[in-house]
Amino acid sequence: MPNLLNLASSPLLPLLALPIFYWAITLRKRKPKETNLVFYVHDNFSGYDTSAMTVAGKNGPTTSVLEFGTLVAVDDPVTEGPDPRSKEIGRAQGLYINSQLDGKGLHMVFSVIFTEGEYKGSTLEIQGADPFSVKEREYSIVSGTGYFRFVRGYGIMTTEFLDVPNLRAILKHNVTLMHY
Ligand SMILES: *[C@@H]1O[C@H](CO)[C@@H](O)[C@H](O)[C@H]1NC(C)=O
Ligand SMILES: *[C@@H]1O[C@H](CO)[C@@H](O)[C@H](O)[C@H]1NC(C)=O
Q: What is the Å distance from ligand 1's center to 144 Cα?
């Protein structure tokens, strides 16, 4: 009858150890990395470089984004620095909808598509609330592609510049990401 002590000296032992060894290596490889990055989004509803457009609202596409229910499509430049002339590293493409009854909050769903620099070809998928009158708004990063596969994280958004009559804004995003 085989007993456990005999097993220890059995030629099968290395075979039994193999899966544990493999598991230990995989586990080590899966240790998450943390990446922090800061970028700026230029949201211009007017001017020669309009990159945000109202597509629907209570009174059609002419409704202000500051009214509950207004839906906006964006393809905003993403730059390295706060200056609109600083290097463009990607685009923020997606939509936001005014989702607060008093008009003071947006819900954002967009991709940051990196087109230049270290993360070129990768994307971050952003979804969250933007109560824009609050100084620092925290939102979630739900996923990503390329370098950012399996990413999760959060971002803190602050308004660096705001021109209300012309609906132009520069938004700073400071994101913290956990990924493999
Ligand atoms: C957006 O608006 C800002 C502020 O008016 C302006 O300086 C900038 O040139 C515009 N365009 C882009 C691409 O940021
Ligand atoms: C970004 O946010 C982190 C905390 O989440 C903070 O430590 C860091 O100083 C911020 N960086 C910038 C440039 O604001």
A: 27
> What is the CATH classification number for the domain harbouring 105?
2.40.480.10
pTM of the model: 0.81
Distance, in Å, from the CA atom of 139 to the CA atom of 133, rounded to the nearest integer, reads 15
- Is residue 8 in some structural domain? no
Give the structural domain span for 68.
33-179
CA of 168 to the centre of ligand 1 (A): 7
pLDDT in tens, 14-67: 666 766 666 666 655 677 889 999 999 999 887 777 899 999 999 999 999 999
Torsion sign (Cα): 4, 5, 10, 15: positive
